[in-house]
Amino acid sequence: MLALYNIITPAPPVEDMKGVGPKLRDKLLELDIKNVNDIVFHLPSGYENLTVMNLTEAKHNDKVTVAGLVKTEPTVAFFRGGKSRLTVFMEVNGMYVKVVFFNQPYLKDKLTVGEPARVSGKFDLHKLEINAQKLIFDASGGFYVKYYLGGVMHSKTFSKIVAEVFEKCIFNYDLPEDLKQKYRLLSVREALWHLHFPKNPHDINEARRTIKFYELFIFQLQLMEKRKQERVRNERYIVNYDVDALREFIETLPFELTSDQKRSANEICRDLKQNISMHRLLQGDVGSGKTIVAGLASYAIKTIGDQTALMVPTEVLANQHYQSFMEIFDGRLNIAKLTGTTSRREKIHIQQALREGEIDLLIGTHALIEDDVIFKRLSLIITDEQHRFGVNQRKRLNDKSYRKNVLYMTATPIPRTLSITTFGDMDVSIIKEMPKGRKPVETYWRRFDETDEVLNALAAEIKQGHSAYIVAPLIEESETLDLKNVQEIFQLFTNRFGEENVELVHGRMKPEDKAAGMKRFEDHEKPVLVSTTVIEVGINVPNATFMVIFNAERFGLSTLHQLRGRVGRSDKQSYCILVSDPKTENAKLRMDIMTSTTDGFELSERDLEMRGPGDYFGVRQSGLPQFKVADLSEDYRVLEHARISAIDYAAKMEADG
Ligand code: ADP
Ligand code: MG
User: Fold this and answer.
1) Contact indicator for 43, 196 with CB cutoff of 8 Å
2) What is the DSSP pairing of strand 63-70 with strand 84-92?
3) What are phi and psi of 518, to 5 degrees?
4) Which atom of ligand 1 is found nearest the CA of 290?
5) Torsion of CA 295, 300, 306, 311, to 10 degrees
């Protein structure tokens, strides 16, 4: 596989450099530096600009480096605690300047009257005084590089080794010539040279630009290679499903599929028919109808007598999916559910039925990855909100496959730029179009002191037989007084609508209590659900037309959008009320954005602008690669160029054989 930091091949070990003996070699090893590539890619952690400047152009308090003549004998005064002050007068650019060094009394011997000297420090324009930090001896001047070397050697020692590598080794890899021209990039060797031996800030910037592009370009090529490898060809992967049965099933659906759903289903079916393992992401905004598309795929699998596993991140979601699929299939598939709360007896029963191939579709949480869950012939794995699972969890499930076909569903509208890094090795099907008759959710922003108005609006909805979600961010008494916690809000609603109409569900409840509460809400026994963000993903109660989000400023745009997606799931007009007294401009902006658009992709782009992709997925998505110069949270534009370039490049390579 193409390696990122491999531009000298073959790469001699560090000890082939004259300056590196066994002792230094061991020290470098501690820094994980083994060969010459590791050396040239061990970039400076920072620079110090000690270029000599004209002091007449300096402003008060500037950090300056100047050259001048020593005019007086330096004097040193000592204080208590070993502290000292060295004072000397110098003539600098025609000015008579007092230069003071604190706690470097030994510099006295280095300063001789009538001799030139260079110093750097902070300039006091009013007193014509330099509070000096450094006396500079070497003649080269300019930029000083600092390396992170863990205290095992000096930056200067390391610089010498770097210089030797440049002198002795042939850098055989470089970016393609046409790309260097198009983006006005340096050669990789030149760029590395400038970073290690800089002359001015401009060179450093240009060099960084080149290395950034280089890193992202190679990264994209790697992704493409991985994608190729993952699509293993094997006759066994061919799923010759019963097209007629599938078509017949689609006829029975209570609605017509949208064209995006049809296209996605076709793409999936085409993957299944090929002798190649499927590796596809099904991306679609909340409520866009991904579930039925996944359902069609599992039905196709069933027609050849094979099995499907659907893994979801939460118990609530597992229940929801289980119910949806039971409804969709109405006895056509044998569906089972396995989660952490499944009883032992039930579990044993399911395990047996699964081994014997009696279960067509197993829906569950990460309980599915347990070793004692053995399928007869698992030929399709669907995961919902896959970024909530670790790589290993996914792998453990994938390893149970008979025919490896994986379909990832996500409602997180991932900006394109990000999806190409995180899902770059997958095929993507996108559902953009909402089912017919859907009306955009009308969204309003209200202050806390307008809560009564919100309650009145809700009363009208309940009267029409609709349901409502009330979202509160916290369970316990909060530190900040104005933050309404879930208990308090529950009180507010029961006072108004009576306990018989209001259900409470939060994260601290036992899963079975939570599930029972959710069920009462789903069955419309109670029309109002007060909850924390447990409803963030996957709940489907088409009758719900009203959502209130308290302390909406506490949530990011993508969470708010996910929450809002719980309403507007039928042809009825739905409403979302953000109750918030935002304190920051950023929070206000979020409220304004939410009230101005319901387009998940637009929101995700705005989100990206506001936050940067670094924390787009939160902690779970720590799988983002780390580079030496490029930073995915900032350089996504470069990334896009690198991606296009990589695709072109690979195509050209292929054409050239
Ligand atoms: P997602 O999983 O993408 O958030 P769902 O699959 O849960 O969305 O679908 C949301 C709702 O829309 C469900 O009630 C589903 O039955 C309904 N639905 C799905 N596709 C269509 C369609 N083509 N026309 C009408 N309703 C649909
Ligand atoms: Mg869904």
Assistant:
1) yes
2) antiparallel
3) -60, -40
4) 3
5) -20
Q: Is 261 in the pocket of ligand 1 (CB under 6 A)?
A: yes
- Ligand 1 center–CA 257 separation, angstroms: 9
Indicate whether residue 257 lines ligand 1 (CB < 6 A). yes
Most ligand 1 atoms within 8 A of CB, residue of 285, 321, 432, 540 to mutate: 540
Beta bridge partners of 578: 445, 549
pLDDT score recorded for residue 106? 93
Instruction: Tell how far the Cα of 380 is from the centroid of ligand 2, in angstroms.
Output: 17
Ligand 2 midpoint to CA 129 (Å): 69
Q: Which of 156, 71, 77, 67 is nearest to 120 (CA)?
A: 67
Element (H, E) at 613: none
Strands 63-70 and 116-124: antiparallel
Q: Which two tokens stand for residue 356?
A: 């014997």
Mean pLDDT score across all residues of the chain: 88
- Check residue 237 and give its pLDDT: 87
> Is the CB–ligand 1 distance for residue 564 below 6 Å?
no
Q: For 447-490, list the strands marked E by DSSP.
A: 467-471
Cis geometry, peptide bond prior to residue 542 (ω within 30 degrees of 0): no
Question: Which residues does residue 48 pair with via DSSP β-bridges, in sequence order?
Answer: 144
Please name the residues in contact with 493: beta carbons below 8 A apart, sequence gap of 6 or more. Answer: 455, 470, 502, 528, 530
Phi first, then psi: give them for residue 429, nearest 5 degrees.
-115, 130
pLDDT in tens, 213-251: 999 999 888 888 877 777 778 888 899 999 999 999 999
Decide: 286 in ligand 1 pocket, CB within 6 A: yes
Cα 294 to middle of ligand 1, angstroms: 11
Q: Which tens digits make up the pLDDT trace of 156-171?
A: 899 999 999 999 999 9
pLDDT at 481 over 50: no
Question: Is a pLDDT exceeding 90 seen at residue 414?
Answer: no
- Give every strand in the sheet of 405-410, ordered side by side: 335-338, 361-364, 307-311, 378-384, 405-410, 278-284, 427-431
Task: Determine which residue's CA is closest to atom 26 belonging to ligand 1.
Answer: 435
In whole angstroms, what is the distance from residue 180 CA to residue 176 CA? 7
Return d(Cα 420, Cα 422) in angstroms, integer: 6
**In this structure, are residues 101 and 130 in contact, taking their beta carbons and an 8 Å threshold?**
no
Count Cβ atoms within 10 A of the Cβ of residue 495 and give its class: 0-12 exposed, 13-18 middle, 19 or more buried: exposed
Which two three-digit tokens encode residue 348? 């044993």
Q: How many helices (H) and strands (E) does the chain have?
A: 20, 21
Q: What is the DSSP track for 245-293? A: HHHHHHHHSSSPPPHHHHHHHHHHHHHHHSSB-EEEEEEE-TTS-HHHH
Q: Report how far residue 114's alpha carbon sits from residue 16's, in angstroms, rounded to the nearest whole number.
A: 46
